[in-house]
């Protein structure tokens, strides 16, 4: 479980340090193969959910697997005005995102398990500079077009819920 914790902590939008990128069918299945974390092309559109932030409604793709999280918005050319990508982690932790192979200017919100936005950052396209969270309580990250949060009056402290209830209910209730 320790390696999975490390992997989750180091992944993010295009975050796959010291690994090769490849399509899944090119991976070497031998014991000595390097681990493939992200794709070398845009991933297909992921399943979506409606999210509610104050009086705003967005449609967010859900990145939940290791490959989906590590690939994020890499290689994509655009994102709709009220579309986003929600990264879902198994448990709260300190995280760091950067924009490797990501051309679309984005802002990200670091969100705790209760759906409360704790931090918001603008990210620079194609930058490898990490943007670490100050909090170690991040369980979700929401990426939107750069400036979307400010333009829509969404600030630190805003709570996010989904069409199926709280984020915890949506993703962790069975």
Which CATH-level-2 architecture? Sandwich
- Percentage of β-strand residues: 25-35%
**Helical content (DSSP H or I, runs of 4+):** 10-25%
In CATH, the homologous superfamily goes by the name Protein of unknown function DUF192
State the separation between the terminal residues, measured CA to CA.
22 Å
Shape: globular
Q: What is the CATH first-level class name? A: Mainly Beta
SS-derived structural category: alpha+beta
**Major sheet: size, sense and barrel closure?**
8 strands, mixed
Radius of gyration: 15 Å
Contiguous uncertain segments of 5+ residues? 1-12, 14-34
Number of helical regions: 4
Strand order of the largest sheet: 6-5-8-3-2-1-9-10
Oligomer: single chain
Order of helices and strands: HEEHEEEEEEHEEH
Fold topology:
Layout: H1 2-10, E1 48-53, E2 56-63, H2 66-71, E3 83-93, E4 96-97, E5 106-111, E6 117-123, E7 131-132, E8 138-145, H3 148-151, E9 160-162, E10 165-166, H4 167-172
State the gist of this model.
The chain is an alpha+beta fold and 174 residues long. The protein has four helices and ten strands. Helix content is 14%, strand content 32%.
Account of the 3D structure:
This protein has 174 residues and is of the alpha+beta class. The chain has a single domain (2-25, 33-172), classed as Sandwich (Jelly Rolls). Helix content is 14%, strand content 32%. It is built from four helices and ten strands. The chain has helices spanning 2-10, 66-71, 148-151, 167-172, and strands at 48-53, 56-63, 83-93, 96-97, 106-111, 117-123, 131-132, 138-145, 160-162, 165-166. The strands form two sheets. It has an eight-stranded mixed beta sheet. Strand 2, helix 2 and strand 3 form a beta-alpha-beta unit. The longest helix is centred in the first third of the chain and has 9 residues, at 2-10.
């Amino acid at each position: 479980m320790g390696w999975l914790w490390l992997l989750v902590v180091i992944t993010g939008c295009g975050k796959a340090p010291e690994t090769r990128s490849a399509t899944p069918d090119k991976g070497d299945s031998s014991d000595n193969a390097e681990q493939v974390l992200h794709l070398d092309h845009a991933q297909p559109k992921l399943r979506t959910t409606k999210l509610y932030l104050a009086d705003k409604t967005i449609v967010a793709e859900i990145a939940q697997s290791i490959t989906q999280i590590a690939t994020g918005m890499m290689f994509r050319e655009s994102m709709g005005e009220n579309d986003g990508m929600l990264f879902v982690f198994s448990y709260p932790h300190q995280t760091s995102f950067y924009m490797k192979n990501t051309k679309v200017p984005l802002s990200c919100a670091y969100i705790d398990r209760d759906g409360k936005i704790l931090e918001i950052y603008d990210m620079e396209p194609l930058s490898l500079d990490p943007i670490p969270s100050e909090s170690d309580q991040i369980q979700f990250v929401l990426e939107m077009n750069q400036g979307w949060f400010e333009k829509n009056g969404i600030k630190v402290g805003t709570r996010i819920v989904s069409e199926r209830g709280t984020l915890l209910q949506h993703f962790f209730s069975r």
